[in-house]
Every structure is written in C-alpha cells, then in structure tokens.
Amino acid sequence: MKGQRLILLVEDNDDDVELTLRALRRNRVANRVDVVRDGAEALEYLFATGSHKGRDVRDAPNLVLLDLKLPKVGGLEVLERLRADPRTRRLPVVVLTSSNVESDLARSYDLGANSYIRKPVDFTQFMEAVNQLGLYWLVLNEAPPYVD
Amino acid sequence: MTLAWIAGIVVLAAVALLLYWRSREARSPREVIDAERERRRVEARYAALMREAKEIVLLVDRDNKVVEANDYALATYGYSRDDLVGTDIDTFRVPQPGVTAADRTRQLVEAGGHLTFESVHRRSDGVEFPVEVGLSIVAVEGEEYFLEIVRDIGERKAADAALRDSEERYRTVFENATSGFALHEVVLDEAGEPVDFVVLAANPAFETQTGLAVADLVGKRGLDVIPGLAESGLVQRFGRVALTGEAERFEMWASGLGRYLDQQVVSPRRGQFALIVLDITEQRSAEATLNADLERRVRERTDELEAANTELEAANTELEAFSYSVSHDLRAPLRALDGFSLALLEDYGRDLEGDAADYLRRIRAASQRMARLIDDLLMLSRMTRRGMTWERVDLSALARSIGGELGDDDPGRQVVFTVAPKMTAEGDAQLLDVALRNLLGNAWKFTSRTEGAQVDVGTEVHGEERVFFVRDNGAGFDAQYADKLFAPFHRLHGEDEFPGTGIGLATVQRIVRRHGGRVWAEGATGKGATVWFTLGPRGEGE
Questions:
Q1: Chain A residue nearest residue B333, CA to CA
Q2: Is the pLDDT of residue B437 over 90?
Q3: In this structure, are residues B498 and B483 in contact, taking their beta carbons and an 8 Å threshold?
Q4: Quick check: A15 contacting B, CB < 8 Å?
Q5: Which residue from B146, B117, B151 is spatially nearest to B131, judged by alpha carbons?
Q6: What is the spatial distance between Cα B325 and Cα B332, in angstroms, rounded to a whole number?
Q7: pLDDT higher than threshold 80 for residue B325
Q8: Most buried by CB count within 10 Å: which residue of A12, A140, B142, B329?
Q9: With an 8 Å Cβ cutoff, are A123 and B335 in contact?
Q10: Which residues in chain B are closer than 8 Å to A18, comparing Cβ atoms?
C-alpha cells in the first residue's frame, strides 16, 4: 500500500483506455494506473505469472476496473478466478463496461463484483462517473485488510 | 286335467250310488221309511253335485242324445234344461277336421272305455271355445251311456299360445342375433370348484363370432372342443360368474381362436352361464392402425415443432448475441467520438477557429443521439423477447410513482398531474412500468412548451371494455398521422422541437399487444394528445 493509490485497468479498447486514463488524470485520484489488454494478462498481472512473472504480488492494486468483453479470458471469468483465490478474494473490483444486459449485471454481482458501472457515451458523464468512482474507492472507502 | 278327472270320478260315484239305491226298493215298512230317507239324502247329494260342479257334466245315450246335464253345462252352453235334454250332442261339437264321431267311439272302445281329447265346442250364441273332453262309457241299469266331462281350456290355450309366442320370439332373437350367444352348464370338482363346462346351446352367430362350429360344441365339454381354453383361465372366470351371479364384460385376445373377443358373461341361473360374444378383431386392428397413424402424426408434428423450436432458439440466441454486441460494441466508438471531441474542445478550444468548435459539438450531439437510439432499440427488442409474469398490477400507484420521478428530474417544470384512484390490471408489472414510463415521458415532453401543463391518467368503460388513457394538453399532433405514431422511428416532431428517437410508442404498442390489448391515439395540433389502451381479456382492469 505505502500510500500509493494504484488502479489496474483491464480494457482492450484503445479509445476506452485513452479516455479512461484521461478521466483519471483529470481527477488526480490515482497516482498510478496500470493497464492490461485482456483477461489472461489481467490474471498474470495479479498472480505475477507469465509476462508478469517476477512482479511483486504484494504490489497489489487498490482497485481493479474490469471490462467484461475481453479477448482470451472474459471479464466474468477473471472475476471468478480472483474471488476463488485467497490472495485476491477481497480485492475491490468495479465492473466498468458498455453492457447493461441484465444477465451481465446479475452474473457480476453473483461472482462478487463490488460495483457495476455502465460507461456513458457522453464523455462529460463518463468523467463524472470515473471521478466519483476514484474518490469513493480510493479515498472514502476503507481498503480490505491485506491478505498474505 | 287332474281336476276334470276327480270331478268325473265323483259324478260317476254319485250316479252309481243313486242307481244302487233305486235297485233296493220294496223292503219292510220300517226299511222302506229308512230307505226313503236315505234315498232323499242321496238325491240331495246328487243334486248338489249337479248344481255345484264347475265342469260340464253330460250323460249321453247311445243315440248321442243328452239325457242328463249339470247346471254348469246349461250355463256354459246357454241352454235351459228342457232345451238341452234330448238334444243331439253334435249340436255343441264343432266338427274337427279328420275326426268323426265314429272315430271317437272306436278310439273309446280301443282305449278300454275311457278317452281324453281336445276339441272345440260351441255355445248357443255361436261362440266357440276350446275344450278338453273326458269321455267314458258307463253302464246304468244295463244301459250303456257316454259320460262326458267337458272342461273349458280357453285360458290355458291362450296362456300356452302366449308362452309359445314368447318362446318363438326369443328363439328368433337367439337364432338371428348378430352377437354370438351360448349357454353353458358349469362342471364342478369335488371341492365345488369349476373345472370345465358343458355347452348347452349356441346360436348360429356364435359360429361367426368365434369360428367354432356350433354343431361340434353343443353337448360337449369346453376343454375338449375350444382350443386354448385351458391356458386362458376362462373356465374359472366363467365358473365364478355362474356361481356368484355377478356378470362380467371384458375384451381379450383369444389366442386359441386368433381373435379379439368382447365377452359378456351373465348367469341365468346358478351353475349356468350365458356368453355373449363379439369378434372385435377388425375394430381392434382398425383402432391400432388409427392409433399408430395418430402417434406417427403426433411424432411428425412434434419433430416439426422441435425443429421450429430449435430454429427459434437459434434465432433467439443469435438475436441475443446481436443485441449484446450492439449494446457493447456499437457504443464504444460512439464514446470515442464523444470523448475525443470533448478532449479537443477542452485541450485545444482556444486554437479552434470559425465553426470548428460548433462542429465538434455536433459530433458529440450526434454520438449521444445514436447512443440513445441504440438503447431504445435494445429496449424495444427486450420488450418483445422478455418472458411475462402475470400478476395484479396497481396502475394508479405505478403512474403516481413515475410522475413523481419525472417531476423530480425536472423540478423547474410546473405540471398538474392527476391519476384516477384504484386502477388495477392483470399484467406484467415490469412491462407495464416501461409502457407507462414511455407514455408519461411523452406527455411530460410534449407539454414542455405549454402554459398550465396538465397530464391525466384515467380509465373509462367503453361498451364491455375497460380502457385506460394518458392525456395531456401539450403540442398534440396532426390527426391524419394518428396511425403512424406507433411505427418505430416514426416521429411527428422535429428533433430540435422535441427530442426523441421515435421508438417509445412502438415499445408501448409491443407491450400492450403482448397483454392482448390495443393502443390508439387521439389528438390535434396544439390541442394535446390522448393515448388510449386496453390490456385484453386477461389484463382486464377494474
């Protein structure tokens, strides 16, 4: 933790990555944002395997922003795997997606998502959403106890 | 017959007694007095017999003339004593074909002096009646007479005829019935258990229905003549009916006969049973064919339905995937268009010249509008595919709650909003919420430029139908386009005038139709609009 406010953004769409980073930069809530482009990489990052082998697992993000429609491993599966592992079970995960299909909502909460945000098309609203999201999860919210 | 005989013998005895006493005259005076007393007594007895006997008694001499007749004879033939005595006996006889009086006499002698036969007699009024005649030769004081005791057997004849007629009818039925009919006597073992039966009678149809030759059956043991009987268990079953009297009816495959038989078993008397048999093999096979045919058709239809279902499921899955993709993938580029346009405006606003900033704002507006279109389209599609959960829905409460939200969203607006109380209907609460939300949203939107805006939700009964309405006093519409209002994407107002996608009323129509109802609109330009809807027979409100 060390006072660092780290967000892991799991997002395959370049435009969305750029816009989300822009929104996060504007509100200055996070002081570091790591980006992974698919579900498989997200898992490697969080469990320090594969391309992220050697990463300090203790250097865990304070918040994961998770898209659902991802290449290789889908967002819902990523969530399921995170919740199944003691090391990431308590990690705050906010689903940030375009989908508002009822089944996605239900599945996400069933699998233990902490929150579900539908990305608005209107970027003004999008920035407002990201702003509140960051404030809430990184500043207001008490982080879960660290799991060894 | 017996009665006639007894009467005859009694009369004979009386006559004999009388003749005997007459032969014992001329005794002592004392004896004469006694004899006289005795004679009177005998005569009185004789008179009583002649008076009371309820059979015709005639004494006829050798010349066929009646010499004595009892009262019953007079009453029956309808003559006075004077007329009758001395009359030729043939007066009463109706000549019988082939039998002469001489024949009778000869027969009488041959029979040893007594003969009984049937004949027909005639009364004085000409009415004929059947009789049984007991004819005897009696000798009285050396003279031979015929003693005729005649009995009217009209009733017995009628009863016999009726019985014969009845028997005849039953026999005709038995012989001509199309059902096989056979009567049997059960054969019991020492323990009283039925072990076989004897065929007593069978009608011709029995042969047709079972294929067994009747001539080979009657008088025979069932086990000897009916193939497959021993294995069928029928001996015991038939025996039970014969012993308990409880009738049975059943259908069975008679393997020994190679037929399906419908058998009714009844017991006419204890120890016997009658079998009424119908060969239903053809009917059965026709039924079997029909059933097989039906089953095959059901199977075919089921297969077709399953195929159609699979196709539909595939189509639905495809549509689902399509919707998902639309919802997810089409929005991302729009977000980029909007987001980067805003980024340009924010970061380089000062460097933009002329209409550049306005163009960027137009790009943003168009992106957002398309996003709304996508959302509305997805909503429309979802309203069609969604399963329905029927329940009683409080439409008044629903309308009030939506109106409240609309008011909260736009606190600057002054809208007089009324909802009729206690409106309920059977329907899907979520679908009805979407429908009302669209209708009230429209009313709110189209009254946005109206002074003293008013929106009413209510209900009326039109004929037998419960009709709901949402009415506003807003911009209204040109009545000639009323039927186009419900077509998707069809709008009667410019986007700059009243924003919208043209999908709201199409969604309302889809929802109303799914409830089995109708929706229509009334209005005039500048005079407000009323949208009416019903919820069909099942959704019928209160």
A1: A15
A2: yes
A3: no
A4: yes
A5: B151
A6: 11
A7: no
A8: A12
A9: yes
A10: 339-340
Kindly state the DSSP code that residue A52 receives in the 8-state scheme. Answer: G
Closest of B110, B114, B117 to residue B138, by C-alpha: B114
- Cβ–Cβ < 8 Å for B541, B459: yes
**Residue A25: HSE in the Cβ half-sphere, 13 Å Cα cutoff:** 8
Q: What is the pLDDT of residues B84-134, one digit of tens each?
A: 888 888 888 888 777 777 777 788 888 888 888 888 888 888 888 889 889
Residues in chain A: 148
Q: What separation in angstroms does the CA of B175 have from each of B165, B168, B171, B198, B209?
A: 15, 10, 6, 20, 13
Amino acid of residue B69: A
Per-residue pLDDT of chain A (148 residues; tens, 9 = 90+): 446 789 999 999 888 899 999 988 888 888 899 999 999 999 999 998 988 888 887 788 999 999 998 888 899 999 999 999 988 999 999 999 887 778 889 999 999 999 999 888 888 898 889 889 888 988 888 888 766 5
CA B500 to chain CA centroid, Å, is 63
Handedness of CA B44, B48, B51, B56 (dihedral sign): negative
Q: Which residues on A lie below 8 Å from B360 (Cβ)?
A: none
Which A residues 53-112 touch B at CB under 8 Å?
68-69, 97-101
Q: Which residue has the tokens 């006829």?
A: B60
pLDDT tens per residue across span B230-289: 888 899 999 999 999 999 999 988 888 889 999 999 999 999 999 999 999 888 888 888
